[in-house]
Design brief:
alpha/beta; single chain; 14 helices; Rossmann fold; globular
Length: about 375
């Protein structure tokens, strides 16, 4: 009789186990809250400084800012959908998860970044963000020009700039071209081209490459420099490298001025900016031919004013945060939101790809042009 309670206890224990297995065998515990669940937006992390700075406001004016979030805190890499590298400095992180995108960002030409990009391991970078139109994320200087038809269809306001002869010519005080330049020796040898042109046409050099103190400080303050630039008929804005799609702030700070910009090669610009709004060195066989044309324009106001006709035609710069015209981090956010499941392999060697995509020249054009300029006849 004394053993009965023991049997009952054993029976109750075994029964409870059977009941537990019967009731809870298909039970799945509710998911516990994790740190990852705090992030509902697409996370973009800036890993290295961009032009020496960390900027958390990168998405402020982007209409997608409620769907993406920008961080500079490196601990967020565990959750970041995209990690941006600008300067290749310090120890490079490893990917936190398979679909994380490592993005290399530059506004420089390939010839100017090859040294640092060569430090990147193979198969490390997923996307390139740059001025090159074939990049995964397009980030051109300035934005996109759109022709009058497209501007009207999209409701983009046309630019409003002086285009009448009286206003434009009233600024002209100096017959010649101004060149504000601080990089005196370049891979493209642009300095040799304009030295040759300067034998037959007035070119005043200001900035770091000027030969005297007065001209070195000629454009030291931008506000005052606008008036000084406008007093010339032409402004040289040749880039330090000749590369596909490489149109920098030199152009974007100039197009509003009442002056004709001079660039190196027409084919880099002609599909990206309004027609007949600039003059290219390679439009001419040599320095004598070019100087003759520039002098002609200065002495023929009707011909000179043809270079400002485009201002009357309704050209517009598309707002950078508008759909189909987004650039930079806003474009990156949009790409992340697409959730494209098509697998794109990382770049085997991103520096080699970028060099090919840039299609850069060295001094071939300068050497040929100067050679032609020295041929008598």
């Amino acid at each position: 009789m004394r053993k009965r309670p023991v049997y009952l206890a054993i029976f109750a224990f075994v029964g409870s186990i059977v009941l537990y297995l019967f009731v809870f065998q298909d039970y799945t515990p509710p998911p516990q809250p994790t740190e990852q669940m705090q992030f509902k937006k697409k996370i973009i992390l800036q890993w290295t400084p961009i032009f020496g700075e960390y900027k958390t406001e990168a998405l402020n004016a982007c209409p997608l800012k409620d769907k993406c979030e920008f961080f500079i805190d490196k601990s967020v890499i565990k959750h970041a959908d995209a990690v941006i590298f600008h300067d290749i400095i310090g120890e490079l992180p490893k990917k936190a998860f398979e679909k994380q995108k490592f993005v290399i960002y530059t506004m420089e030409s390939a010839l100017n970044v090859m040294g640092s990009w060569s430090k990147l391991p193979d198969n490390y970078i997923d996307w390139v963000m740059s001025h090159v139109s074939s990049s995964d994320i397009h980030s051109p200087y300035g934005g996109y020009w759109v022709n009058p038809k497209i501007a009207k269809e999209n409701g983009f306001p046309p630019i409003s700039l002086p285009s009448d002869e009286k206003t434009i010519l009233s600024t002209k005080k100096i017959k010649g071209a101004l060149w504000v330049v601080s990089n005196c020796k370049t891979l493209s040898k642009r300095e040799l081209i304009f030295a040759e042109l300067g034998k037959y046409f007035r070119i005043d050099i200001a900035g770091g490459c000027a030969k005297n103190k007065t001209m070195k400080n000629y454009c030291s303050r931008e506000g005052n420099c606008i008036e000084k630039k406008s007093s010339y008929y032409f402004l040289i804005i040749a880039e330090n490298t000749i590369c596909r799609d490489y149109i920098t702030e030199k152009y974007w700070w100039t197009y509003e001025l009442p002056i004709i910009p001079i660039v190196m090669k027409r084919e880099i610009y002609e599909m990206k900016i309004p027609p007949k709004s600039f003059i290219a060195v390679n439009d001419f066989k040599n320095s004598k031919e070019m100087s003759k044309y520039l002098n002609y324009l200065m002495n023929n106001h009707t011909a000179y004013m043809e270079y400002f006709q485009w201002r009357k035609n309704g050209w517009a710069v598309a707002p950078w945060n508008t759909k189909n015209y987004r650039i930079g981090v806003c474009d990156l956010c949009e790409k992340l939101l697409q959730n494209d499941d098509r697998k794109k392999e990382p770049y085997l060697n991103v520096s080699e790809w970028f060099l090919e995509a840039n299609s850069c020249e060295h001094d071939e054009f300068a050497n040929e042009w100067i050679k032609n300029s020295k041929i008598k006849g």
